[in-house]
Specification:
Blueprint (H helix, E strand, L loop, with lengths): L4 E3 L1 E2 L2 H4 L3 E4 L7 E3 L4 E3 L12 E8 L7 E8 L5 E5 L5 E6 L10 E4 L5 E4 L4 E2 L3 E2 L5 E8 L6 E12 L1
């Protein structure tokens, strides 16, 4: 593997913890509700919108494929951002630690069907990267008037492989 090649790892709560939360129904439900017909997996993400409000938007992204050229990372300094797929397809999640206000070496994760992510405030991450149609996601993030996006172009880019 070259310095600019990243191998995807399975998306697990432990591996993703430095960057955010994995949204999934893992283990037994915290509560049984709706007359015993529904399991509730309670409070699975730390949503953080600062002094602004949270909102739900729908994103429809074009699918990509592996190997994938990772040339852009972004972060949102004013709030967390959760991505919840609206289909039973996995997607690519790329993140990087912060190193003096710049992204460090990225990491790549492949989600399993039924998993989403909540990326914590200020964490560098790649753009929404579905690997299958329809590429439809519910996104929960900060709604506000002040800027909440920083972008960093990677030169040279990384290549993400499965």
């Amino acid at each position: 593997m070259s310095r600019f090649e990243i191998t995807c790892a399975p998306l697990t709560a432990a591996a993703f913890a430095p960057f955010g939360d994995v949204l999934e129904c893992a283990g037994a439900p915290d509560k049984i509700i709706n007359a015993g017909m529904c399991g509730r997996y309670h409070d699975r993400a730390r949503l953080d919108f600062g002094d602004e409000r949270g909102g739900i938007s729908l994103f429809q992204a074009q699918p990509r494929s592996l190997p994938y050229t990772l040339d852009l990372l972004e972060r949102h300094p004013e709030g967390s951002q959760a991505f919840v797929p609206m289909s039973q397809h996995g997607f690519l999640v790329t993140v990087a630690p912060d190193e003096n206000a710049r992204p460090g070496v990225p990491q790549a994760f492949l989600s399993a069907p039924g998993q989403g992510v909540n990326i914590h405030r200020g964490v560098w991450h790649g753009v929404l990267t579905p690997l299958h149609l329809p590429g439809l996601f519910a996104v929960v993030d900060r709604i506000g008037e002040t800027p909440n996006l920083e972008e960093f172009f990677l030169d040279p880019p990384y290549v993400v492989v499965s």
